[in-house]
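pasting for ref
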Amino acid sequence: MLPVSWLRILRKKQGLTMSEIAERLGISVQMVYQYEKGIRTPKQGERWNAVLDSLNLYQNDWIPCDVALPSDVNEDWVLVQIKERDSGSLWIPKVGEFQQHTNSWWIETDDGIWNVANYHGFDVIAWHVIPSFDLSIEERNHD
Protein backbone atom coordinates (compact mmCIF):
# COMPACT_ATOMS: atom_id res chain seq x y z
CA MET A 1 0.00 0.00 0.00
CA LEU A 2 1.40 3.41 -0.98
CA PRO A 3 1.73 6.14 1.61
CA VAL A 4 -0.81 8.93 1.23
CA SER A 5 1.75 11.74 1.32
CA TRP A 6 5.20 10.93 2.57
CA LEU A 7 5.94 14.55 3.49
CA ARG A 8 2.77 14.73 5.58
CA ILE A 9 3.34 11.30 7.09
CA LEU A 10 6.85 12.17 8.20
CA ARG A 11 5.73 15.54 9.57
CA LYS A 12 2.93 13.95 11.61
CA LYS A 13 5.18 11.08 12.74
CA GLN A 14 7.50 13.65 14.27
CA GLY A 15 4.62 15.52 15.88
CA LEU A 16 5.21 18.65 13.81
CA THR A 17 2.56 21.01 12.50
CA MET A 18 2.57 22.66 9.09
CA SER A 19 3.21 25.94 10.92
CA GLU A 20 6.35 24.55 12.55
CA ILE A 21 7.69 23.26 9.23
CA ALA A 22 6.86 26.59 7.57
CA GLU A 23 8.72 28.46 10.31
CA ARG A 24 11.77 26.18 9.99
CA LEU A 25 11.83 26.77 6.23
CA GLY A 26 10.92 30.46 6.25
CA ILE A 27 7.92 29.88 3.98
CA SER A 28 4.14 30.13 4.35
CA VAL A 29 1.91 27.41 5.76
CA GLN A 30 0.11 27.47 2.40
CA MET A 31 3.39 26.53 0.67
CA VAL A 32 3.89 23.58 3.05
CA TYR A 33 0.30 22.50 2.31
CA GLN A 34 1.01 22.69 -1.43
CA TYR A 35 4.20 20.61 -1.01
CA GLU A 36 2.30 17.95 0.91
CA LYS A 37 -0.51 17.78 -1.63
CA GLY A 38 1.89 17.70 -4.58
CA ILE A 39 0.51 20.97 -5.96
CA ARG A 40 4.02 22.43 -5.86
CA THR A 41 7.43 20.92 -5.30
CA PRO A 42 10.38 22.52 -3.56
CA LYS A 43 13.13 23.80 -5.81
CA GLN A 44 16.12 21.53 -6.22
CA GLY A 45 19.16 22.25 -4.15
CA GLU A 46 19.13 24.37 -1.05
CA ARG A 47 15.33 24.60 -0.54
CA TRP A 48 14.82 20.88 -1.07
CA ASN A 49 17.66 20.00 1.31
CA ALA A 50 16.07 22.32 3.90
CA VAL A 51 12.75 20.44 3.54
CA LEU A 52 14.52 17.12 4.08
CA ASP A 53 16.48 18.52 7.03
CA SER A 54 13.29 19.88 8.63
CA LEU A 55 11.97 16.30 8.62
CA ASN A 56 15.24 14.84 9.88
CA LEU A 57 15.99 13.13 6.54
CA TYR A 58 19.59 14.18 6.13
CA GLN A 59 21.40 13.58 2.83
CA ASN A 60 24.09 11.41 4.44
CA ASP A 61 21.40 9.01 5.76
CA TRP A 62 20.40 7.91 2.24
CA ILE A 63 21.67 4.47 1.23
CA PRO A 64 23.43 4.36 -2.15
CA CYS A 65 22.00 1.63 -4.41
CA ASP A 66 25.50 0.37 -5.18
CA VAL A 67 25.97 -0.31 -1.44
CA ALA A 68 22.64 -2.02 -0.62
CA LEU A 69 19.12 -2.51 -1.94
CA PRO A 70 15.93 -2.78 0.13
CA SER A 71 15.38 -6.38 1.14
CA ASP A 72 13.30 -6.24 4.32
CA VAL A 73 9.50 -6.23 4.36
CA ASN A 74 9.75 -3.02 6.43
CA GLU A 75 11.48 -1.46 3.44
CA ASP A 76 8.66 -2.30 1.04
CA TRP A 77 8.02 1.26 -0.14
CA VAL A 78 10.94 3.64 0.33
CA LEU A 79 11.92 7.14 -0.75
CA VAL A 80 14.20 7.07 -3.77
CA GLN A 81 16.48 9.59 -5.42
CA ILE A 82 16.39 9.50 -9.21
CA LYS A 83 19.17 10.96 -11.33
CA GLU A 84 19.03 11.86 -15.02
CA ARG A 85 22.07 10.34 -16.70
CA ASP A 86 22.58 13.07 -19.33
CA SER A 87 22.20 16.17 -17.17
CA GLY A 88 23.10 14.70 -13.79
CA SER A 89 20.00 16.41 -12.35
CA LEU A 90 18.39 14.89 -9.28
CA TRP A 91 14.61 14.63 -9.10
CA ILE A 92 12.62 15.47 -6.01
CA PRO A 93 12.55 12.14 -4.08
CA LYS A 94 9.73 9.81 -5.07
CA VAL A 95 8.09 6.89 -3.32
CA GLY A 96 9.37 3.67 -4.85
CA GLU A 97 9.65 -0.06 -4.43
CA PHE A 98 12.52 -2.36 -5.38
CA GLN A 99 11.16 -5.65 -6.70
CA GLN A 100 13.74 -8.36 -6.22
CA HIS A 101 12.13 -10.86 -8.58
CA THR A 102 12.49 -8.43 -11.51
CA ASN A 103 15.56 -6.62 -10.12
CA SER A 104 13.93 -3.27 -10.91
CA TRP A 105 12.57 -0.13 -9.27
CA TRP A 106 8.92 0.92 -9.50
CA ILE A 107 8.22 4.58 -8.79
CA GLU A 108 5.02 6.41 -7.82
CA THR A 109 4.34 9.44 -10.05
CA ASP A 110 1.37 11.68 -10.76
CA ASP A 111 0.62 9.43 -13.76
CA GLY A 112 0.63 6.21 -11.79
CA ILE A 113 3.40 3.73 -11.09
CA TRP A 114 6.19 3.14 -13.60
CA ASN A 115 9.22 0.92 -13.91
CA VAL A 116 12.44 2.95 -13.99
CA ALA A 117 14.04 0.32 -16.25
CA ASN A 118 11.52 1.21 -18.99
CA TYR A 119 12.65 4.85 -19.00
CA HIS A 120 16.12 5.11 -20.47
CA GLY A 121 18.34 7.81 -19.10
CA PHE A 122 17.27 7.56 -15.45
CA ASP A 123 18.77 5.74 -12.49
CA VAL A 124 17.70 5.29 -8.90
CA ILE A 125 20.88 6.20 -7.05
CA ALA A 126 19.87 6.08 -3.37
CA TRP A 127 17.00 5.23 -1.06
CA HIS A 128 15.74 5.99 2.43
CA VAL A 129 13.34 3.97 4.58
CA ILE A 130 9.96 5.59 5.16
CA PRO A 131 9.29 5.26 8.87
CA SER A 132 6.30 3.04 9.50
CA PHE A 133 3.33 5.17 10.36
CA ASP A 134 -0.31 4.17 10.25
CA LEU A 135 -2.94 6.84 9.72
CA SER A 136 -6.58 6.12 10.17
CA ILE A 137 -8.84 7.04 7.25
CA GLU A 138 -10.06 10.03 9.22
CA GLU A 139 -6.50 11.26 9.79
CA ARG A 140 -5.66 10.78 6.11
CA ASN A 141 -8.43 13.18 5.12
CA HIS A 142 -7.64 15.92 7.62
CA ASP A 143 -4.53 18.01 8.27
